[in-house]
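Contributing new records

If you add data, match the layout below exactly. Sequence lines come first and carry their own label; structure lines follow with theirs. Keep one chain per record. Anything else will be rejected by the validation script.
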Amino acid sequence: MSNRTLAVDAKLLEELQLTRAQLGLSGTPCLAQDDVDRLHEELEVTLSDDVLAIFAMLEKDLRQAVVLTEELREEGLPSSYVALLSDPEKLTWCLRKGKGTLTAWPAKTNLPKTLDAIVRRFRMLDAVEQQDDDDEEPQLDEGFDDDLDLGDEDEERDGESESDGEGEDGEEGDEAREEREIAKDLAARVKPKPVKRPPPKAKKKPTKPKREPRPVEDVTPWIVVAEKKERWVAHPRFGKGRVVREVKDGRHFLEIAFEDGTTRKLLAEFVKDA
């Protein structure tokens, strides 16, 4: 099996190329054949090239569709539905098996039927996410020091002055004593204002590089097939065989093509690598 180009509807491809440009996406859009096979096997559904192209062109993880669908099936999603996008508006964009039109789950919202609608929704949600990242304001440093308050220090000084003059009252006249009391009273009332310090400068948080709009590129998505080494195993009864595929359906099974020409599905624990 070799790499292949996805056959995409011309109008949908144009919408996808425009979306990639607006979101600043670049590079060769592709999906791994392993991820496509996993979706087909675990969800028992085959997605069209148009749907696969949406995931490839918008750089969405196809495995998330598997996880999302399995989670929703536990909550009542019909087995004929494949979940593509969990929308913040408390609905999920889905496809029905054998149909190329969109439908909502729960079925309380009427969605546009054509696939270009979900492309525009992906574009809007991604653009909002980018904008949120750009607008995130840096937070001020915590733990500001309190303004200096020199009042206590002045009171200590006043106390010292008072104690210093206690032994001199007998030598000074009433007039001098009265002037000293007035001076102390004024000093106690008029305290220096606290020293105002400018707040510390806020630390700027590192910002994510903003993806700028790019020119519309004439790109087409691919399915990439990873080169795999053949795995050979041995069974005590059936002999040596080549592993065709692995099946995890509650337990781990191997589909094995044996040298005698038979193909058998056996538990992995009953064979060993040859």
